[in-house]
Design goal:
- It is a single chain.
- The chain is mostly helical.
- It is 62% helix and 0% strand.
- The protein has a domain of 34 residues.
Length: 63
């Protein structure tokens, strides 16, 4: 671990990567949370019932 720490300290601008990855992580979950709050209830109900139906999917082509 000591070798990796010394190696990373020698790279200029390396401190931006943890900040950038945190921003991506935070942004993803904020957008996902916003989508969940604004999704139509009819769509959520329709999608939640998909695993329970015995019907074949509409896009399933016969082989």
């Amino acid at each position: 671990m000591k070798f990796a720490k010394q190696y990373l300290e020698g790279i200029e601008g390396i401190e931006i990567y943890p900040i950038f990855s945190l921003l991506i992580f935070f942004s993803f979950f904020v957008i996902l949370f916003w989508w969940v709050l604004t999704a139509k209830k009819e769509y959520i109900e329709q999608v939640s019932e998909i695993p329970l139906t015995d019907e074949e999917p509409l896009n399933n082509k016969e082989q």
